[in-house]
Amino acid sequence: MNKDAVIAAWSNYQQWWSTARDKDILRFRTISWPTVTTITAAEDLTVNRIASFVLSPHHSQDKSPKDRIKEQLLRWHPDRFEGRYLPKVPADERDAVRQGVGQVVKALNDLMSRDRDNPFARERS
């Protein structure tokens, strides 16, 4: 993954989260999902895309992979996200956002359960 792209995406992601509570309206396409690439649907939120972003060596070198994943699990926790941010999402997009949050949490839990020394290990059957 391109180092500059990851650094820019991480910076934008952190900025979005620092201001998300102040936003009046959130839409699926304006949520800063934990990937480098633009996300247009919940199915785009794959384990590999999320791992490439969250576990990239181009940011947060002071944190272990486990700590990075834990931090994101807290951020994306469905109850927390739904309580704080879902009311700001228009009703016609809420299901898509819920699905996206679910995909993120599922991917992060999968990463947490993988071999610590190889977070990019193949998915288990």
Computed Rg: 14 Å
What is the string of SSEs from the N terminus onward?
HHHHH
* Average pLDDT: 91
Query: How would a textbook summarize the main sheet?
Result: none
The rounded distance between the terminal residues' Cα atoms is: 26 Å
Structural class assignment: mainly alpha
Number of helical stretches of at least 4 residues: 5
What is the helical fraction, as a range of percent?
40-55%
**What is the 3D shape?**
globular
Q: Report the β-strand fraction as a percent range.
A: under 5%
Count of distinct structural domains: 1
The tally of strands reads 0
GO cellular component, one term: nucleus
Subcellular location: Nucleus
Keywords: ANK repeat, Nucleus, Phosphoprotein, Repeat
Main location: nucleus
Identify the notable features of this structure and list them briefly:
mainly alpha; 5 helices; 125 residues; single chain; globular; 51% helix
Structural account:
It is a single chain. With 125 residues, this protein is mainly alpha-helical. It has one domain (3-113). The chain has 5 helices and no strands. The protein is globular and about 35 Å long. The relative contact order is 0.17.
Q: What is the fold's blueprint, element by element?
A:
Elements: H1 3-19, H2 47-54, H3 65-76, H4 78-84, H5 94-113
Helix pairs in contact: 2-5, 3-5
Short description:
This protein is mostly helical. The chain contains five helices and no strands.
